[in-house]
Amino acid sequence: MKRWRYIPLTLLALLVWWPVWYLLMGALQSPEELELTVGPAISGQGEAVYTILPTWPTLWPLIGLLLDIPEFWDTFWNTVLLSVPQVLGQLLTAIPAAWALSRLRFRGRTVLTGLYILLMLMPFQVTMTPNFLVLDALGLMDTVWAVILPGIYSAFPVFIMLRFFDGIPRELLDSADLDGADHWETFWYIGLPLGRPGILAAMVLTFLESWSAVEQPMTFLRKERWLPLSLRIGQMELSQAMGAGLVALIPAVLVFRWGQKYLELGIRSGTMEEV
Q: Which one, 82, 174, 206, 210, has least CB within 10 Å?
């Protein structure tokens, strides 16, 4: 009977993996075959024909994308330029903020924590106009900083790290105080090592979000020279878009695979605290 429980999970996994498989097979199809299978649905003149395997697999469209279209690499490195600084910037801002909210006692701490949670729950559409006005007043519109700076000061990674810092046993911190450690030493030798899973989980989620971001660059970037892959793919030919989507998926999968254990620790930590 236990084996029957895996059937719904298997079907759900196949349903989730189907778009990835179709993207992979689409990258291996010729432009002519893609026009026959997917073209009618995109043009609005028919329905797509979904095939499990391409009729005549070929790597030439993917090779042509990587070797003959320099604009693809421009947009690829634009995506890297918009994503990596957000991750690195949060190491300098979110970690100290989360530690301060977790371990320092000061007036207004509870209110400030509530504001962080409120900002985290707000969708981008709510904060879009204030961000636009501030960035325009600072003269940062149509620059990469218009996307990077709001990402660096996002409230979501602070919340993730805060949960992990709250889970550090109080006895360890008291022992450090008895040994004469100051706030900086406690943070460096106890907080960072024990909060490492939460820090890395937040970094992984930040990278995945910024790597596939659409609304932020669409709102704050107008110059085509700074557009990321998430916006450029829609302007490519069908065969090129399939290949570009596959290449863009690789860094996200690698980062997720590397940080998967830290994400699982974060989920288990939040579950145990709720129980």
A: 174
